[in-house]
Structure formats: structure tokens, C-alpha cells
Design goal:
2 domains, single chain, mainly alpha, 0% strand, elongated, 156 residues
Length: 156
């Protein structure tokens, strides 16, 4: 606290005097204050690391991961806005939010899964299927198969 009081006193003095000597003292005080803040942060991080190590050593994994989430500043629950289907209204109360989720799941579950035209199915990419081979695969066939897979990955 002495460094903070000293810094405040020098700030007041600097504002009154506006001299170059006061600026140098203010600069030294600022550096000293930064050093104290850095030391306090280092001490806090060291204590936090020791506490987290103790939690890990005593198999208190729930508390350990909660501390990790706190350090990384991630919450276990996401906070996002919930808009209407048209994107105009922002829902804030519980009933509107529940109705919006019901609309969302109804739209997901009410999809018609019946295929009325078979020609659409024929256009789908056919995945290779396993065949019973009478003879082992030759090295040339294996190389060709690898090349086809590599080209397929590059193109898609």
C-alpha cells in the first residue's frame, strides 16, 4: 500500500508542478507499482497452481476441471441469443423460449423421409463395398487403389 500511496502523491505533485524532475520520479514510481502488481499476480497464480495440483492429487476432478474452466474463462453453459424463425424477435422470457425450441424440434422431426423419385437415389455417390476375393490383391492393384483414394480426398 505504501507504493500506491507514494504513486498517488507523486501524481498529485506532477499535476501541480509539471516539471521534468517530477516526471522522472513519476516514471520510477510507475515502474515500482508495475513490479508490485506483477509480483501480486505471480503470487496469486502460484497459489492457484498449488491448489489445482492438490485437487488433482486428491482425485477431486470435478473441482479441478471447474478451476480449469474458470482459468480459461469458459463456462459450462453457452449464452447465445434466441431469435424467432424469421430472425426478427429476440426471445427473453421462459414461455417464448420453450415455444421456440418446440418449433425447432417439430421442424426437425416433421421431415418427410419418403423418397418418391428413385432417380435421385441413383445420383448419390456409391461407396465401395467389400468383395470376397479368390486371389490376393496384386501390388499394382493396391497402388492404384491408394492413388484413387488420394485423388478422391484431394478433389473432395
Amino acid at each position: 500500500m505504501d507504493a500506491i500511496d507514494k504513486h498517488r502523491r507523486l501524481l498529485k505533485q506532477h499535476n501541480r508542478i509539471h516539471q521534468s524532475g517530477g516526471a522522472m520520479g513519476l516514471r520510477r514510481s510507475e515502474l515500482e507499482l508495475r513490479k508490485l502488481v506483477r509480483q501480486a499476480k505471480d503470487k496469486l497464480k502460484h497459489e492457484k497452481a498449488r491448489q489445482m495440483q492438490w485437487l488433482a492429487d486428491t482425485d477431486q476432478l470435478g473441482d479441478f476441471y471447474a478451476e480449469v474452466r474458470h482459468l480459461l474463462d469458459t463456462s459450462s453453459m453457452a449464452k447465445v441469443t434466441l431469435n424467432s424463425i424469421s430472425g426478427e424477435a429476440l426471445f427473453k422470457n421462459r414461455e417464448e423460449i420453450l415455444e421456440r425450441w418446440a418449433e425447432h424440434f417439430n421442424s426437425l422431426l416433421s421431415v418427410d423421409h419418403f423418397v418418391d423419385r428413385v432417380d435421385h437415389v441413383c445420383c448419390l455417390h456409391q461407396q465401395p463395398f467389400a468383395l470376397e476375393l479368390d486371389e490376393p490383391v496384386s501390388p499394382d492393384e493396391e497402388i492404384n487403389a491408394w492413388l484413387v483414394l488420394i485423388l478422391y480426398r484431394v478433389n473432395y
